[in-house]
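Incident log entry.

Two folding requests arrived from the same account within the same minute. Monitoring flagged them as a possible duplicate submission, but the sequences differ. Recording both here for audit purposes.

Request one:
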Amino acid sequence: MTDEPARWSQATVFPDMWVDPDDDPRDSSGPGPEGELATLDGYLADYRITLRMKCEGLDPEQLARRSVPPSTMSLLGLVRHLAEVERNWRNWISDDEPLPKLYGRRDADFDGAVAEQAAVDAAFADLAREQAATDAALAAHADLGERLGRDRITVRELLVHRVEEYARHCGHADLLRECIDGRVGQ
Protein backbone atom coordinates (compact mmCIF):
# COMPACT_ATOMS: atom_id res chain seq x y z
CA MET A 1 0.00 0.00 0.00
CA THR A 2 1.09 3.56 -0.72
CA ASP A 3 -0.25 6.97 0.17
CA GLU A 4 0.56 8.27 -3.29
CA PRO A 5 -2.50 8.95 -5.44
CA ALA A 6 -2.89 6.96 -8.64
CA ARG A 7 -2.14 8.98 -11.78
CA TRP A 8 -5.21 9.74 -13.89
CA SER A 9 -6.60 12.07 -16.52
CA GLN A 10 -10.12 13.20 -17.23
CA ALA A 11 -9.33 13.06 -20.95
CA THR A 12 -10.42 10.10 -23.03
CA VAL A 13 -9.30 11.19 -26.50
CA PHE A 14 -5.63 11.85 -25.68
CA PRO A 15 -4.56 10.27 -22.37
CA ASP A 16 -1.80 12.83 -21.78
CA MET A 17 -4.27 15.74 -21.89
CA TRP A 18 -6.01 17.37 -18.92
CA VAL A 19 -9.39 17.34 -20.65
CA ASP A 20 -10.71 16.28 -24.02
CA PRO A 21 -10.32 18.88 -26.80
CA ASP A 22 -14.07 19.57 -26.93
CA ASP A 23 -14.04 20.38 -23.19
CA ASP A 24 -10.89 22.52 -23.21
CA PRO A 25 -11.66 26.22 -22.61
CA ARG A 26 -8.38 27.22 -24.24
CA ASP A 27 -9.16 27.78 -27.91
CA SER A 28 -6.56 26.08 -30.09
CA SER A 29 -8.75 25.59 -33.14
CA GLY A 30 -8.32 27.60 -36.29
CA PRO A 31 -5.43 29.79 -37.30
CA GLY A 32 -3.17 31.36 -34.69
CA PRO A 33 -3.43 34.99 -33.68
CA GLU A 34 -2.32 37.79 -35.98
CA GLY A 35 0.65 39.77 -34.79
CA GLU A 36 3.00 39.87 -31.85
CA LEU A 37 0.66 41.52 -29.33
CA ALA A 38 -2.20 39.12 -30.06
CA THR A 39 0.20 36.17 -29.78
CA LEU A 40 1.53 37.29 -26.41
CA ASP A 41 -1.96 38.04 -25.12
CA GLY A 42 -3.16 34.64 -26.33
CA TYR A 43 -0.41 32.73 -24.55
CA LEU A 44 -0.99 34.72 -21.37
CA ALA A 45 -4.73 34.03 -21.49
CA ASP A 46 -4.13 30.30 -21.99
CA TYR A 47 -1.72 30.08 -19.06
CA ARG A 48 -4.17 31.96 -16.85
CA ILE A 49 -6.88 29.47 -17.77
CA THR A 50 -4.49 26.56 -17.22
CA LEU A 51 -3.76 27.72 -13.68
CA ARG A 52 -7.47 27.87 -12.91
CA MET A 53 -7.99 24.43 -14.45
CA LYS A 54 -5.28 22.98 -12.20
CA CYS A 55 -7.14 24.35 -9.16
CA GLU A 56 -10.67 23.28 -10.18
CA GLY A 57 -12.45 20.66 -8.14
CA LEU A 58 -10.21 20.95 -5.09
CA ASP A 59 -11.30 21.89 -1.60
CA PRO A 60 -9.53 24.52 0.54
CA GLU A 61 -7.36 21.93 2.28
CA GLN A 62 -6.14 20.54 -1.05
CA LEU A 63 -5.52 24.00 -2.49
CA ALA A 64 -3.50 25.02 0.58
CA ARG A 65 -1.53 21.75 0.80
CA ARG A 66 2.21 22.42 0.76
CA SER A 67 4.53 20.68 -1.66
CA VAL A 68 7.57 19.33 0.18
CA PRO A 69 9.36 20.79 3.19
CA PRO A 70 10.82 23.30 3.54
CA SER A 71 8.85 24.79 0.62
CA THR A 72 5.67 26.72 1.41
CA MET A 73 4.43 26.37 -2.18
CA SER A 74 0.80 25.36 -2.71
CA LEU A 75 -1.76 25.90 -5.45
CA LEU A 76 -3.47 28.54 -3.32
CA GLY A 77 -0.09 30.14 -2.66
CA LEU A 78 0.53 30.31 -6.42
CA VAL A 79 -2.81 32.07 -6.95
CA ARG A 80 -1.95 34.58 -4.22
CA HIS A 81 1.59 34.99 -5.56
CA LEU A 82 0.37 35.73 -9.08
CA ALA A 83 -2.09 38.31 -7.74
CA GLU A 84 0.84 39.96 -5.94
CA VAL A 85 2.97 39.80 -9.10
CA GLU A 86 0.23 41.30 -11.26
CA ARG A 87 0.02 44.22 -8.84
CA ASN A 88 3.79 44.66 -8.84
CA TRP A 89 3.94 44.73 -12.65
CA ARG A 90 1.87 47.89 -12.51
CA ASN A 91 4.63 49.38 -10.35
CA TRP A 92 7.09 48.60 -13.16
CA ILE A 93 5.17 50.68 -15.71
CA SER A 94 4.14 53.56 -13.49
CA ASP A 95 5.94 56.72 -12.52
CA ASP A 96 3.71 57.00 -9.43
CA GLU A 97 4.45 55.81 -5.92
CA PRO A 98 4.52 51.99 -5.78
CA LEU A 99 1.31 50.20 -4.88
CA PRO A 100 1.52 48.46 -1.51
CA LYS A 101 1.89 44.69 -1.36
CA LEU A 102 -1.41 42.84 -1.20
CA TYR A 103 -0.36 40.39 1.49
CA GLY A 104 2.30 42.32 3.37
CA ARG A 105 5.77 41.03 4.06
CA ARG A 106 7.87 38.90 1.73
CA ASP A 107 6.51 35.37 1.21
CA ALA A 108 3.20 36.26 2.88
CA ASP A 109 1.48 35.25 -0.37
CA PHE A 110 2.58 31.65 0.25
CA ASP A 111 2.64 31.70 4.06
CA GLY A 112 -0.91 33.06 4.24
CA ALA A 113 -2.37 30.38 1.95
CA VAL A 114 -4.52 28.71 4.60
CA ALA A 115 -7.14 26.00 4.19
CA GLU A 116 -10.20 28.23 4.61
CA GLN A 117 -12.88 28.89 2.01
CA ALA A 118 -12.73 32.63 2.71
CA ALA A 119 -8.99 32.64 1.92
CA VAL A 120 -9.61 30.73 -1.32
CA ASP A 121 -12.41 33.07 -2.40
CA ALA A 122 -10.34 36.14 -1.55
CA ALA A 123 -7.30 34.85 -3.44
CA PHE A 124 -9.22 34.20 -6.65
CA ALA A 125 -10.98 37.59 -6.35
CA ASP A 126 -7.62 39.28 -5.79
CA LEU A 127 -6.14 37.54 -8.82
CA ALA A 128 -9.04 38.50 -11.10
CA ARG A 129 -8.98 42.12 -9.91
CA GLU A 130 -5.21 42.49 -10.27
CA GLN A 131 -5.17 40.82 -13.70
CA ALA A 132 -7.89 43.17 -14.93
CA ALA A 133 -6.09 46.23 -13.54
CA THR A 134 -2.76 45.27 -15.14
CA ASP A 135 -4.46 44.42 -18.43
CA ALA A 136 -6.19 47.82 -18.41
CA ALA A 137 -2.96 49.66 -17.61
CA LEU A 138 -1.15 47.94 -20.48
CA ALA A 139 -4.05 48.39 -22.94
CA ALA A 140 -3.16 52.07 -23.07
CA HIS A 141 0.22 51.15 -24.60
CA ALA A 142 -0.18 49.33 -27.92
CA ASP A 143 3.40 50.09 -29.06
CA LEU A 144 5.40 47.09 -27.84
CA GLY A 145 8.61 49.10 -28.02
CA GLU A 146 7.31 51.89 -25.79
CA ARG A 147 9.37 52.32 -22.62
CA LEU A 148 7.48 52.80 -19.38
CA GLY A 149 8.10 53.53 -15.72
CA ARG A 150 11.20 54.57 -13.84
CA ASP A 151 13.24 51.65 -15.25
CA ARG A 152 12.05 52.32 -18.82
CA ILE A 153 10.95 48.73 -19.42
CA THR A 154 9.43 48.05 -22.84
CA VAL A 155 5.85 46.88 -23.08
CA ARG A 156 7.17 43.85 -25.00
CA GLU A 157 9.55 42.87 -22.19
CA LEU A 158 6.79 43.11 -19.61
CA LEU A 159 4.40 41.02 -21.72
CA VAL A 160 7.02 38.34 -22.29
CA HIS A 161 7.83 38.34 -18.58
CA ARG A 162 4.14 37.88 -17.76
CA VAL A 163 3.91 34.85 -20.07
CA GLU A 164 7.11 33.41 -18.57
CA GLU A 165 5.88 33.88 -14.99
CA TYR A 166 2.57 32.13 -15.62
CA ALA A 167 4.21 29.35 -17.66
CA ARG A 168 6.73 28.62 -14.89
CA HIS A 169 4.05 28.55 -12.23
CA CYS A 170 1.75 26.38 -14.35
CA GLY A 171 4.61 23.86 -14.35
CA HIS A 172 4.63 24.03 -10.55
CA ALA A 173 0.85 23.65 -10.57
CA ASP A 174 1.16 20.47 -12.69
CA LEU A 175 3.33 18.84 -10.05
CA LEU A 176 1.31 20.12 -7.10
CA ARG A 177 -1.94 18.84 -8.57
CA GLU A 178 -0.45 15.43 -9.35
CA CYS A 179 0.70 15.15 -5.73
CA ILE A 180 -2.76 16.09 -4.44
CA ASP A 181 -4.98 13.69 -6.36
CA GLY A 182 -2.88 12.12 -9.12
CA ARG A 183 -4.48 14.08 -11.95
CA VAL A 184 -2.09 14.71 -14.83
CA GLY A 185 -2.14 16.37 -18.24
CA GLN A 186 -1.15 19.57 -20.00
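Request two (distinct sequence, not a duplicate):
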Amino acid sequence: MMFEAVYAKIGPAGLVIAVLSFVSLYLFLSGLIYLAVVPVGFRRFVAALKKKSPTVTEEDAAKNPIAHVLLTALAHRTARSELQGEVAYLFQRNLSGTTVSLTILRLISVISPLLGLLGTVLGITRVFREMSLQAAVDNAALAGGIWEALITTIMGLTVAIPTLVFYYLLRLRTRSLMIGTIEAARELMIGQDEN
Protein backbone atom coordinates (compact mmCIF):
# COMPACT_ATOMS: atom_id res chain seq x y z
CA MET A 1 0.00 0.00 0.00
CA MET A 2 2.82 2.38 0.82
CA PHE A 3 4.60 1.33 -2.40
CA GLU A 4 1.50 2.22 -4.41
CA ALA A 5 1.33 5.69 -2.82
CA VAL A 6 5.00 6.35 -3.58
CA TYR A 7 4.61 4.96 -7.11
CA ALA A 8 1.63 7.26 -7.69
CA LYS A 9 3.81 10.24 -6.73
CA ILE A 10 6.94 9.38 -8.73
CA GLY A 11 5.69 7.17 -11.56
CA PRO A 12 7.69 4.62 -13.53
CA ALA A 13 10.58 7.00 -14.32
CA GLY A 14 10.95 7.88 -10.64
CA LEU A 15 10.95 4.20 -9.71
CA VAL A 16 13.78 3.51 -12.18
CA ILE A 17 15.72 6.50 -10.80
CA ALA A 18 15.28 5.17 -7.25
CA VAL A 19 16.63 1.76 -8.28
CA LEU A 20 19.55 3.42 -10.09
CA SER A 21 20.43 5.34 -6.93
CA PHE A 22 20.92 2.07 -5.03
CA VAL A 23 22.92 0.56 -7.91
CA SER A 24 25.13 3.66 -8.00
CA LEU A 25 25.79 3.56 -4.26
CA TYR A 26 26.54 -0.17 -4.34
CA LEU A 27 28.99 0.14 -7.27
CA PHE A 28 30.75 3.06 -5.63
CA LEU A 29 31.16 1.41 -2.22
CA SER A 30 32.23 -1.95 -3.65
CA GLY A 31 34.69 -0.24 -6.02
CA LEU A 32 36.06 1.94 -3.24
CA ILE A 33 36.64 -1.04 -0.95
CA TYR A 34 38.17 -3.10 -3.78
CA LEU A 35 40.52 -0.30 -4.81
CA ALA A 36 41.57 0.16 -1.18
CA VAL A 37 42.31 -3.53 -0.56
CA VAL A 38 44.05 -4.50 -3.82
CA PRO A 39 47.00 -2.05 -3.50
CA VAL A 40 48.03 -3.58 -0.16
CA GLY A 41 48.87 -6.89 -1.81
CA PHE A 42 50.46 -5.07 -4.74
CA ARG A 43 52.85 -3.16 -2.49
CA ARG A 44 53.91 -6.42 -0.80
CA PHE A 45 54.42 -8.00 -4.22
CA VAL A 46 56.60 -5.10 -5.42
CA ALA A 47 58.65 -5.20 -2.21
CA ALA A 48 59.27 -8.92 -2.75
CA LEU A 49 60.32 -8.30 -6.37
CA LYS A 50 62.81 -5.61 -5.32
CA LYS A 51 64.73 -8.00 -3.05
CA LYS A 52 67.98 -9.36 -4.46
CA SER A 53 66.65 -12.92 -4.56
CA PRO A 54 62.90 -12.59 -4.97
CA THR A 55 60.79 -15.59 -4.11
CA VAL A 56 57.85 -14.43 -6.14
CA THR A 57 55.94 -16.75 -8.43
CA GLU A 58 53.24 -16.30 -11.02
CA GLU A 59 50.82 -17.83 -8.51
CA ASP A 60 51.58 -14.95 -6.13
CA ALA A 61 50.88 -12.48 -8.92
CA ALA A 62 47.64 -14.23 -9.86
CA LYS A 63 46.25 -13.45 -6.39
CA ASN A 64 46.39 -9.71 -7.07
CA PRO A 65 45.25 -8.19 -10.38
CA ILE A 66 47.65 -5.23 -10.23
CA ALA A 67 50.57 -7.52 -9.40
CA HIS A 68 49.54 -9.64 -12.38
CA VAL A 69 49.60 -6.53 -14.58
CA LEU A 70 53.11 -5.71 -13.37
CA LEU A 71 54.46 -9.23 -13.82
CA THR A 72 52.95 -9.49 -17.30
CA ALA A 73 54.48 -6.16 -18.36
CA LEU A 74 57.86 -7.30 -17.03
CA ALA A 75 57.55 -10.72 -18.68
CA HIS A 76 56.71 -9.14 -22.05
CA ARG A 77 59.86 -7.04 -21.73
CA THR A 78 57.84 -4.08 -22.93
CA ALA A 79 59.92 -1.19 -24.19
CA ARG A 80 59.88 1.77 -21.80
CA SER A 81 58.34 3.96 -24.49
CA GLU A 82 55.40 1.53 -24.83
CA LEU A 83 55.05 0.72 -21.14
CA GLN A 84 52.25 3.16 -20.43
CA GLY A 85 50.05 1.77 -23.22
CA GLU A 86 50.82 -1.83 -22.22
CA VAL A 87 49.93 -1.21 -18.58
CA ALA A 88 46.72 0.62 -19.57
CA TYR A 89 45.71 -2.35 -21.73
CA LEU A 90 46.55 -4.85 -18.97
CA PHE A 91 44.58 -2.78 -16.46
CA GLN A 92 41.53 -2.95 -18.74
CA ARG A 93 41.92 -6.71 -19.02
CA ASN A 94 42.76 -7.57 -15.39
CA LEU A 95 40.54 -5.07 -13.62
CA SER A 96 37.55 -5.55 -15.90
CA GLY A 97 35.10 -5.49 -12.98
CA THR A 98 36.25 -2.01 -12.00
CA THR A 99 36.10 -0.88 -15.63
CA VAL A 100 32.52 -2.16 -15.94
CA SER A 101 31.56 -0.44 -12.67
CA LEU A 102 33.01 2.84 -13.92
CA THR A 103 31.11 2.53 -17.19
CA ILE A 104 27.83 1.82 -15.39
CA LEU A 105 28.36 4.75 -13.00
CA ARG A 106 28.98 7.06 -15.95
CA LEU A 107 25.87 5.73 -17.67
CA ILE A 108 23.74 6.29 -14.55
CA SER A 109 25.04 9.86 -14.24
CA VAL A 110 23.99 10.54 -17.84
CA ILE A 111 20.58 8.85 -17.93
CA SER A 112 19.28 9.88 -14.48
CA PRO A 113 18.51 13.51 -15.46
CA LEU A 114 16.98 12.28 -18.71
CA LEU A 115 14.74 9.87 -16.80
CA GLY A 116 13.81 12.75 -14.50
CA LEU A 117 12.84 14.85 -17.49
CA LEU A 118 10.85 11.95 -18.91
CA GLY A 119 9.00 11.60 -15.61
CA THR A 120 8.24 15.32 -15.60
CA VAL A 121 6.90 15.24 -19.13
CA LEU A 122 4.77 12.17 -18.37
CA GLY A 123 3.45 13.82 -15.19
CA ILE A 124 2.57 17.09 -16.93
CA THR A 125 0.90 15.13 -19.73
CA ARG A 126 -1.20 13.34 -17.12
CA VAL A 127 -2.15 16.67 -15.50
CA PHE A 128 -3.27 18.15 -18.80
CA ARG A 129 -5.21 15.01 -19.66
CA GLU A 130 -7.06 15.23 -16.34
CA MET A 131 -7.69 18.95 -16.90
CA SER A 132 -9.24 18.21 -20.28
CA LEU A 133 -11.69 15.81 -18.66
CA GLN A 134 -12.87 18.40 -16.09
CA ALA A 135 -15.38 21.11 -16.90
CA ALA A 136 -13.84 23.64 -14.49
CA VAL A 137 -10.08 23.79 -13.92
CA ASP A 138 -9.05 23.65 -10.27
CA ASN A 139 -5.86 25.72 -9.88
CA ALA A 140 -4.87 23.90 -6.68
CA ALA A 141 -5.12 20.52 -8.41
CA LEU A 142 -3.13 21.88 -11.36
CA ALA A 143 -0.34 23.21 -9.11
CA GLY A 144 -0.27 19.95 -7.13
CA GLY A 145 -0.05 17.90 -10.30
CA ILE A 146 2.81 19.95 -11.70
CA TRP A 147 4.62 19.74 -8.36
CA GLU A 148 4.31 15.96 -8.46
CA ALA A 149 5.61 15.92 -12.03
CA LEU A 150 8.71 17.94 -11.09
CA ILE A 151 9.69 15.48 -8.34
CA THR A 152 11.24 13.15 -10.91
CA THR A 153 13.46 15.92 -12.28
CA ILE A 154 14.68 16.61 -8.75
CA MET A 155 15.23 12.88 -8.21
CA GLY A 156 17.16 12.56 -11.48
CA LEU A 157 19.51 15.40 -10.61
CA THR A 158 19.88 14.17 -7.03
CA VAL A 159 21.07 10.81 -8.34
CA ALA A 160 23.16 12.14 -11.26
CA ILE A 161 25.32 14.59 -9.32
CA PRO A 162 26.67 12.22 -6.62
CA THR A 163 27.01 9.42 -9.17
CA LEU A 164 29.21 11.63 -11.33
CA VAL A 165 31.32 12.40 -8.25
CA PHE A 166 31.52 8.65 -7.49
CA TYR A 167 32.64 7.99 -11.07
CA TYR A 168 35.44 10.55 -10.97
CA LEU A 169 36.66 9.47 -7.53
CA LEU A 170 36.97 5.84 -8.64
CA ARG A 171 38.49 6.87 -11.96
CA LEU A 172 41.13 8.98 -10.20
CA ARG A 173 41.93 6.09 -7.86
CA THR A 174 42.27 3.69 -10.80
CA ARG A 175 44.56 6.11 -12.66
CA SER A 176 46.65 6.57 -9.53
CA LEU A 177 47.11 2.81 -9.26
CA MET A 178 47.98 2.63 -12.96
CA ILE A 179 50.66 5.32 -12.56
CA GLY A 180 52.04 3.49 -9.52
CA THR A 181 52.24 0.29 -11.56
CA ILE A 182 54.06 2.06 -14.41
CA GLU A 183 56.55 3.58 -11.97
CA ALA A 184 57.15 0.21 -10.27
CA ALA A 185 57.67 -1.45 -13.66
CA ARG A 186 60.20 1.21 -14.70
CA GLU A 187 62.09 0.85 -11.41
CA LEU A 188 62.21 -2.92 -11.74
CA MET A 189 63.30 -2.69 -15.39
CA ILE A 190 66.16 -0.41 -14.39
CA GLY A 191 67.10 -2.94 -11.70
CA GLN A 192 67.03 -5.77 -14.28
CA ASP A 193 69.19 -3.77 -16.70
CA GLU A 194 71.81 -3.15 -14.00
CA ASN A 195 72.05 -6.88 -13.18
